[in-house]
């Protein structure tokens, strides 16, 4: 079925985030986002896709193309290469439920994104990953003719409430883990850990087995699948000639998915696909509510602008004189 998506990068961030958190399996939004694209059919929002990068954009690209100098700086310690000229990564891709069973809806959304990128950016590649931990092989990218570039292992926590929680977001709880270890073994036990760059405190980078068992937390690993789409012939030649990875069209399938419980590395075991509880949001609350705080700030700014205009125009006899009256 042919879908006539109209793509816009003018979609409000709050509207897009609300859409994703309503319909996507994961409410956590990517932190480094360059563009948020809205996909409309007959004026109705039917999809949202974000373009940006993961937590370490340059290191990610350097892993794919180590000879291009993406990590090099000039004498002023400025990056020589502009990362925007090289790649964007799909951070979130979400369709409205009425299109979930429409054949080709996802791949047409990706194709529309590629056309938009060619018209509006200087980018060479569209990069993405399929989350094998969530049972995703990347079928929509396979249908969109992406190149597959190997798999790698990753791990997450399943918290006691069933919530999926990434280790890179766990520094605060690692402090709790450190307090747990002090109480159990004494303060000197932490000398085995390096001081953290941000605070200088000694604490584990990952939850320790005894802490997880005490709290009912599990550490699980699974696979991530890399996909890359070159946006022009030059990029395709570069991918096939200079990349450190072998890119091809031999795609992974569901039989390739694997999961392990590594809560206790000495008792590592194979497990079926983890059943995360997607409606539980406790440990990712800061991320999932960030757009709401942004909306409140925007509302205050808009209110201030309107009030200022009224004062200038002298259309109000009773001018508000206190901050308390302003916020009524």
Describe the structure.
The chain has 328 residues and is an alpha+beta fold. Among the domains are: 6-153 and 221-252, Gcn5-related N-acetyltransferase (GNAT) (Aminopeptidase); 289-328. 32% of the residues lie in helices and 21% in strands. It is built from ten helices and ten strands. Strand 4, helix 3 and strand 5 (125-131) form a beta-alpha-beta unit. The protein is globular.
Topology of helices and strands:
Elements (H helix, E strand, L loop, with lengths): L5 E3 L4 H11 L8 E10 L2 E10 L3 H8 L22 E9 L9 H16 L4 E7 L7 H5 L3 E12 L5 E2 L5 H15 L23 H7 L2 E13 L2 H10 L17 E2 L7 E2 L14 H4 L1 H24 L9 H4 L2
Parallel strand pairs: 4-5
Antiparallel strand pairs: 1-2, 2-3, 3-4, 5-8, 6-7, 6-8, 8-9, 9-10
CATH class of the domain at 6-153 and 221-252: Alpha Beta
Q: What's the total helix number?
A: 10
The radius of gyration computed from the alpha-carbon positions, rounded to a whole number of angstroms, is 24 Å
**Secondary structure: helix percent:** 25-40%
Q: CATH H-level name of the domain at 6-153 and 221-252... which superfamily?
A: Gcn5-related N-acetyltransferase (GNAT)
CATH fold category name of the domain at 6-153 and 221-252: Aminopeptidase
The residue-averaged pLDDT reads 89
**What structural class do helix, strand and pairing data support?**
alpha+beta
**Total strand segments:** 10
Keywords:
alpha+beta; Aminopeptidase; 10 helices; 10 strands; globular
């Amino acid at each position: 079925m042919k879908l006539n998506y109209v793509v816009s990068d003018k979609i409000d961030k709050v509207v897009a985030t609300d859409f994703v958190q309503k319909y996507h399996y994961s409410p956590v939004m990517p932190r480094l986002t360059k563009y948020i694209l809205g996909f409309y059919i007959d004026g109705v929002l039917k999809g949202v896709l974000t373009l940006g990068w993961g937590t370490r954009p340059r290191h990610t690209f350097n892993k794919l193309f180590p000879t291009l100098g993406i990590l090099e700086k000039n004498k002023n310690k400025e990056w020589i290469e502009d990362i925007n000229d090289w790649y964007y990564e799909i951070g979130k891709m979400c369709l409205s439920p009425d299109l979930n069973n429409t054949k080709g809806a996802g791949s047409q959304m990706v194709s529309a994104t590629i056309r938009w990128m060619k018209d509006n950016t200087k980018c060479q590649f569209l990069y993405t990953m399929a989350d094998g931990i969530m049972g995703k092989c990347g079928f929509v990218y396979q249908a969109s003719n992406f190149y597959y570039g190997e798999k790698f292992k990753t791990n997450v926590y399943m918290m006691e409430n069933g919530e999926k929680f990434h280790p890179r977001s766990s520094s605060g709880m690692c402090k709790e883990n450190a307090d747990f270890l002090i109480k159990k073994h004494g303060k000197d036990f932490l000398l085995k850990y390096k001081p953290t760059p941000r605070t200088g405190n000694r604490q584990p980078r990952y939850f320790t087995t005894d802490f997880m068992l005490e709290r009912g937390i599990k550490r699980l690993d699974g696979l991530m699948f890399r996909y890359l789409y070159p946006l022009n012939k030059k990029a395709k030649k570069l991918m096939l000639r200079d990349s450190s990875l072998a890119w091809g069209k031999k795609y992974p399938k569901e039989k390739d998915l694997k999961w392990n419980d590594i809560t206790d590395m000495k008792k590592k075991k194979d497990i079926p696909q983890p059943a995360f509880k997607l409606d539980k949001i406790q440990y990712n609350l800061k991320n999932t509510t960030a757009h709401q705080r942004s909306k409140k700030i925007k509302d205050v700014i808009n209110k201030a602008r309107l009030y200022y205009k009224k004062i200038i125009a002298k259309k109000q006899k009773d001018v508000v004189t206190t901050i308390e009256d302003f916020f009524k």
